Structure formats: structure tokens, C-alpha cells
Amino acid sequence: MSAVTIGSTACHSIALWEAQHVRARSCRSETCGDGGLQNAPQIRCRVGLLVASGQGADRRGLTVTAATSLCVEPPMVLACINRNAEAHDVILRTGAFSWNVLAADQVRLAERFAAMDGSKGASRFTPVDWHDLATGAPVLLHSVCSFDCRIEDTLQVSTHTIIMGAVVAQSHNPDKRSLIYAAGRFGTLEYFDLAVPGK
């Protein structure tokens, strides 16, 4: 694993994440019926992501389903966090968070931070899985890549806050495969066939 501080150069791991972010059509018609929008995300294939913030007993984190890179120069990412999530206020109060692309062997972490095992708060964090880089926010070890971010801007939309972060440091494991979330389940991509233009 390597860790670097981000300066004026672009963060190549963000571009890598974008290349791995496979999308499928979520609706076959121009209009969706009742529940169409709610069910559409289960059709789309996404990379598993975990956002974390805080220090010590104040640490909080969650598995997120709505997050993406925002721009490469300067490097920025965003995550949409439900305002009822216990991590929400911690992220805003500390002004920093980590944005972690989960590896294929981190399914249990994804489930734990999605509250599938009933755990809450700082009890979700085990020292062997975490370290810190620049901001002091907990950064996931052994992820495909992790970005340590300071909040650049926020936008409240309905039930969520869109949190935009400037990447100040990163760590990455280029040999790791990404954990994929699709059809309401976690998995991996064993085979990816590139589309041929014009066919």
C-alpha cells in the first residue's frame, strides 16, 4: 500500500474509480411507475463505498450508495448522506471525512457499516482496519483506494446533504479488486467485456 499527499496534480485513483464505475440503464421507458425511482438503483451496478469521520469514541461511518468523483483538477469527491445517519453531524462538525472504495474481500465491513449486524457508532471500528493520513479522519486500510478529504461545500436536498470534499491525501492498493453493489447485493466483477464502438 502506498500513501501520498495530494498537491496540484490530478488524483489518478479517481479516474481509475470512474473507469470501474459501470452503469446500466435503470428504466426502459421515459416514465417510471410507482416505485420506479426506488427500485432503479438496484439495477445499476456500483462500486461499494464507505465514508467515515471523527476520532476516538466520536468516530462514525456508513456504507454509501450515492457517491462519485466530482472533478480531477483539483481532486474532489462527493457523497450524499442521509441527515438521520449518525455519521452525518460528525462529518459536518469535524469538516473532514474519508471516502473509501471497498475491496472485494471487505464484504463484512460493507455490511457492518450498513448496520446489517446491528452495530453502531465507534464499535464498528477495529484498529486493525484503520489508520489516519492528513485530516485525522479514519481512513480504511486495504481498500482499493481511499481519499482523505476536507469539506469544500455542502448542499441540503430533501432528506440528504450532498457533501463535497477536497482530497488532501490518498492511499491505494492497485492490486485489489473493487467490491460491487448491484441488485441489492454485494459481489465482484469476474469478467468485463469492453464495448466496441459502432457495434
Features:
199 residues; alpha+beta; Pnp Oxidase, Chain A; 8-stranded antiparallel sheet; 3-stranded antiparallel sheet; globular; disordered N terminus; Flavin_Rdtase-like_dom; FMN binding; riboflavin reductase (NADPH) activity
Task: Describe how the helices and strands are arranged.
Layout: E1 2-5, H1 12-20, H2 36-43, E2 46-47, E3 49-53, E4 60-64, E5 67-71, E6 76-82, H3 86-94, E7 96-101, H4 107-112, E8 130-131, E9 139-140, E10 145-157, E11 160-172, E12 180-182, E13 185-187
Antiparallel strand pairs: 1-11, 2-12, 3-4, 3-7, 5-6, 6-11, 7-10, 8-9, 10-11, 12-13
Offer a quick outline of the entry.
Helix content is 16%, strand content 35%.
Description of the structure:
This protein is 16% helix and 35% strand. The chain has one domain: Pnp Oxidase, Chain A (Roll). The longest helix is centred in the N-terminal third of the chain and has 9 residues, at 12-20. Strand 5 and strand 6 form a beta hairpin. It has helices at 12-20, 36-43, 86-94, 107-112; strands spanning 2-5, 46-47, 49-53, 60-64, 67-71, 76-82, 96-101, 130-131, 139-140, 145-157, 160-172, 180-182, 185-187. The chain is an alpha+beta fold and 199 residues long. The chain contains four helices and 13 strands.
